[in-house]
Specification:
50% of the residues lie in helices and 13% in strands. It has helices at residues 2-21, 36-44, 59-63, 66-78, 108-125, 142-155, 169-172, 175-182, 189-200, 223-246, 267-283, 302-308, 342-358, 364-382, 388-409, 417-426; strands at 87-93, 100-105, 160-165, 203-205, 208-210, 251-256, 259-264, 294-297, 316-318, 321-327, 334-340. The strands form three sheets. Strands 2-1-4-5 form a four-stranded mixed sheet, with no helix packed on it. A hairpin with a 2-residue loop joins strand 9 and strand 10 (321-327). The longest helix is centred in the middle third of the chain and has 24 residues, at 223-246. The two termini are 41 Å apart.
C-alpha cells in the first residue's frame, strides 16, 4: 500500500509539473488516479468525530469494513454508477446572535470522493492560481493574506483602497459557467461528470429534497476549490490582465476566498475599478453588496488629508480585523495597524457566555480546561502584530465572566479574587501574547 501511495503522489507531482510548464494543457486522463490508495489517504484525513450526513454513516462505522467498502466505492466510481447524495442541511447557533447559521453535511462517501477530486484538481490549479489568492489553499493562511496586505500598504505607494463584498457568493456561483471554466484545463469527461453530479446533488432539509440549480455544494470538501477556480477566472485574472495594465501607478488585489481588498496609487484607477468590477461580476451572475462596498483614502497621507477636512481617517475590516492608519513608535514612519473587529470581539465574548450557561453543570476542572482551549484558539488567530491590547482585554473579560459564573454555581461570593487566582494556579489559562508577526516580509 505504501508503494501505491507513492505512485499516486508521483503521478500527481508529474501532473503538477506539466500544468506548470504548459498553461494551455488540457488533461484528458485523470480519473484513473481515483484509486484505493488515494481514497484510503482521504479517509485517514477525515475528522474522527465529524457529524454524519443523510446516510447516518460515521467514520468509525465505515472503518469496520474499510477494505470492502473502498473496493465497492472504487467499483461504483469506475462504472459511473456512483451517485452523490443530497447534502444534509442543519442550522447551528451563530455566536453572539439570535440568528442561526446553515451548515451542510455531506454523506461520508461523498466526502471521500470530493477529497479525492480535490487532490487531483489541486495538482493542476495550484500551478494556475495567482500569488494574491490565499483562501483554502495548501500552505497559505489568513495570516499570510494579512502579512501581504501589510507589506502592500506600508512598502508601496498606496493611497486609495476598495473594500468589496460579494453578496451570497457560494450560493450564486453559476454552475454552467463554472463547468466552462473547468474545461479550460480538464478534458477528462468522468471528472467533469462527477463534479456536475455533486453540483446537482441538492440539499435535504427537514426531510425535503431541494434541487440545486446554482451555487457550489453546501459544506462540500470540493466547494472551496471550485469557488477559487470561479473567482480565479472572474476576478483574479481580470484584475491582473486588465485592471493593473490600464491603471496608472501601483495596483494590487489581495483575496481570501470571496473576501478581498484592492489597493491603488491613484484615485482614478480605484474609481474605474469600482465601476468595472460591478459590471464584471454581473457577467457571471454575481453582485456586490452596495452597503459593504466602498472606495476610501488610505495610506501615509490619509491622516493629514482627513484632518485638513475635519474628518476622521477611514478604517476597513478584513479577515476579522479592523485596519487603521497610524505611525511607528518614534512617529517617523507610517504604519497600518490593526485590532480585533468590535463585532467579532462582542460575538466571541457572548458566545463564551452562552457556552458557560449551557455547560455550567460541568466540573470546575473541565470548565477551566475548555476555557483554556478557547483562549488558545483566540490568541492563535487574533494575537497578531499591534493587537495586544485587544487580546488582553478579551482574556480579561473572559476571566470576569468565568468568575461570575463560578460564583453563581455556589454560595454568592464564594469565589473571591484571591481564591479565584489560587484556582487559576491549579488550572492556568494562557496569557495574552503576540503569536504572529505581520511585519516579516
Amino acid at each position: 500500500m505504501h508503494r501505491n501511495e507513492e505512485n499516486v503522489q508521483t503521478k500527481l507531482h508529474r501532473i503538477a509539473l506539466k500544468a506548470s510548464k504548459d498553461k494551455g494543457c488540457q488533461f484528458t486522463s485523470l480519473f484513473h488516479l481515483m484509486n484505493k490508495a488515494l481514497l484510503l489517504e482521504c479517509f485517514t484525513q477525515l475528522k474522527d468525530k465529524a457529524a454524519s450526513g443523510i446516510d447516518n454513516i460515521t467514520k468509525e462505522a465505515y472503518a469496520t469494513h474499510l477494505d470492502a467498502n473502498l473496493d465497492s466505492l472504487i467499483e461504483r466510481l469506475h462504472k459511473m454508477a456512483y451517485k452523490p447524495q443530497p447534502v444534509l442541511r442543519v442550522y447551528i447557533p451563530k455566536p453572539g446572535s439570535k440568528k442561526r447559521r446553515p451548515l451542510g453535511i455531506p454523506a461520508l462517501e461523498d466526502k471521500l470522493v470530493q477529497a479525492g477530486l480535490v487532490k487531483i484538481l489541486q495538482a493542476i490549479y495550484e500551478q494556475d492560481f495567482l500569488n494574491d489568492s490565499y483562501g483554502f489553499r495548501p500552505k497559505r493562511s489568513c495570516h499570510d493574506a494579512l502579512r501581504a496586505l501589510s507589506q502592500t500598504v506600508e512598502a508601496n505607494p498606496v493611497h486609495y483602497m476598495v473594500e468589496a463584498d460579494i453578496k451570497g457568493f457560494f450560493d450564486h456561483v453559476d454552475q454552467e459557467q463554472l463547468m466552462a471554466f473547468l474545461q479550460h484545463r480538464i478534458a477528462d469527461k468522468r471528472i467533469l461528470r462527477y463534479i456536475k453530479r455533486f453540483l446537482k446533488a441538492g440539499i435535504q432539509e427537514d426531510g425535503q429534497h431541494k434541487a440545486s440549480e446554482q451555487g457550489t455544494p453546501q459544506g462540500g470538501v470540493v466547494s472551496p476549490l471550485l469557488a477559487n477556480i470561479y473567482l480565479h477566472y472572474t476576478l483574479d485574472l481580470w484584475f491582473e490582465k486588465r485592471v493593473k495594465r490600464s491603471s496608472q501607478g501601483y495596483a494590487r488585489l489581495i483575496r481570501y476566498a470571496d473576501d478581498y481588498v484592492a489597493c491603488f496609487q491613484h484615485a482614478e484607477g480605484a474609481k474605474q475599478f469600482m465601476q468595472d468590477m460591478e459590471a464584471r461580476l454581473n457577467q457571471f451572475h454575481l453582485e456586490v453588496a452596495p452597503e459593504k462596498t466602498r472606495l476610501f483614502e488610505f495610506g501615509q497621507f490619509a491622516q493629514s488629508k482627513a484632518k485638513a477636512r475635519g474628518e476622521r481617517t477611514a478604517t476597513f475590516d478584513f479577515l476579522g480585523l479592523t485596519h487603521y492608519c497610524s505611525r511607528s513608535r518614534d512617529g517617523k514612519c507610517f504604519r497600518m495597524k490593526r485590532k480585533t473587529m468590535s463585532k467579532r470581539f462582542t460575538a466571541k465574548l457572548k458566545g463564551y457566555k452562552e457556552w458557560l450557561k449551557a455547560n455550567r453543570t460541568l466540573s470546575t476542572a473541565q470548565i477551566l480546561k475548555t476555557t483554556a482551549a478557547k483562549l488558545r484558539g483566540h490568541i492563535a488567530y487574533y494575537g497578531v502584530t499591534d493587537n495586544y491590547k485587544s487580546i488582553k482585554n478579551f482574556c480579561y473579560q473572559v476571566l470576569l465572566t468565568l468568575l461570575k459564573w463560578l460564583n453563581r454555581r455556589g454560595k454568592r461570593g464564594c469565589y473571591t479574587w484571591e481564591k479565584f487566582h489560587k484556582l487559576l494556579n491549579l488550572y492556568p489559562l494562557p496569557k495574552p501574547r503576540i503569536m504572529v508577526n505581520l511585519l516579516s516580509f
